[in-house]
């Protein structure tokens, strides 16, 4: 990508890195390598400060979100997170996942953006038919700081409960974020709920309908029930543009749509609030089955870093560079085992870094890309 005419001057950014557990540290390192390359090319300085979260924090200090990690995240320009959790902490009194929920809440990250694009050259990597997935371009807006994830929990010998609560304001703010995104895209929002059963879903539907009518009437809004939506997403995924949904449905549906692209290891996310730093993490987990073996696909984490450049730092060219390099590498077949390739995490990351440099070399000399 050649830099745009009025490119912003080089800047310095403080990025907190939370590697976490399992493959988290492996993919977090990949993102740092790619950002360092971007910094070299564009002259920005990215200062990385690593902090503990999840199981690694439990092992070191006995809690999943240490106070200094929280303070560092709140003071950072942005946060990158690998993944948390793993069987080692199953049944432990404090769970690694609590640290992740706590930092999302503390940073006020109510909107979790999970985009997916399946370009024609990548469609064959999906286990689904090429004609179904080719050209998919959608984004999930998942509410991230409320719902059943944050309701009161009870437990006795004979029963357990998880309370699901949504307030009008919590629905309004994430709905506005989704409608605003649709304005910049194909102008369609599909709001997903379970309004035939759940009271929180009936409120969700009412509020989304009202915000649409009052503030975004030019956007096409449709409502869908989560069970049939799970089916439609793999039968006709190209029909969707922006998918707006509550915390738990968004968690489940986003893992489902990862199949369209061929691997959960490809999908990035951005978690954003009203103001303050954002947090950027792949949608996958700590992948204990492949951790520590140089097998993890770094692309979801690397694309999360690109989302950080775009959303938090307004560095569009730099984000475009990473995305173009990832697309070129995936198209070339230089991929990890989850996509049927032979590269390890380190080699796949190197391929992305090399592609960024090659694209810049070609752009600077006005050479067609295939010579680079
Ligand atoms: N944001 C997070 O930190 C996050 C997200 C999801 C799950 N988790 C945690 O991770 C742990 C494991 O959960 P899980 O097994 O259900 O989900 P997972 O996403 O970790 O793994 C599911 C499957 O996808 C594969 N996979 C995941 N990431 C991959 C990558 N980058 N490259 C190649 N293959 C990849 C894994 O090998 C596994 O077969 C649990 O403790 C869970 O709570 C954390
Ligand atoms: C680990 C877990 C708490 C987390 C979630 O459910 O939000 C994960 O599945 C995700 O998708 O980020
Ligand atoms: Mg999940």
Description:
The chain is an alpha/beta fold. It is 43% helix and 17% strand. The strands form two sheets. A ten-stranded mixed beta sheet has the order 2-1-3-12-11-4-5-10-8-9, sandwiched between helices. It starts with 11 loop residues before the first strand and ends in an 8-residue tail after the last helix. Bound molecules: nicotinamide-adenine-dinucleotide, 3-isopropylmalic acid and magnesium ion (MG). Residues 23, 83-86, 97, 100, 263-265, 281, 284-290, 296-297, 300, 338 line the site of nicotinamide-adenine-dinucleotide (NAD). Residues 251, 255 line the site of magnesium ion. The record marks 149, 194 as: Important for catalysis. Catalyzes the oxidation of 3-carboxy-2-hydroxy-4-methylpentanoate (3-isopropylmalate) to 3-carboxy-4-methyl-2-oxopentanoate. The product decarboxylates to 4-methyl-2 oxopentanoate. Residues 14-352 form the Isopropylmalate dehydrogenase-like domain.
Summed up, what is this model?
Keywords: Amino-acid biosynthesis, Branched-chain amino acid biosynthesis, Cytoplasm, Leucine biosynthesis, Magnesium, Manganese, Metal-binding, NAD, Oxidoreductase. The protein has 372 residues and is of the alpha/beta class.
SSE arrangement:
Blueprint: E1 12-20, H1 24-42, E2 45-50, H2 54-61, H3 67-75, E3 78-83, H4 96-106, E4 111-117, H5 130-133, E5 137-143, E6 153-155, E7 160-162, H6 168-183, E8 188-193, H7 199-215, E9 220-225, H8 226-235, E10 242-245, H9 247-261, E11 270-272, E12 279-280, H10 299-311, H11 316-332, H12 345-364
Parallel strand pairs: 1-2, 1-3, 3-12, 5-10, 8-9, 8-10
Antiparallel strand pairs: 4-5, 4-11, 6-7, 11-12
Bound molecules: nicotinamide-adenine-dinucleotide (NAD), 3-isopropylmalic acid (IPM) and magnesium ion.
Domain Isopropylmalate dehydrogenase-like: 14-352
Keywords: Amino-acid biosynthesis, Branched-chain amino acid biosynthesis, Cytoplasm, Leucine biosynthesis, Magnesium, Manganese, Metal-binding, NAD, Oxidoreductase
GO molecular function, one term: NAD binding
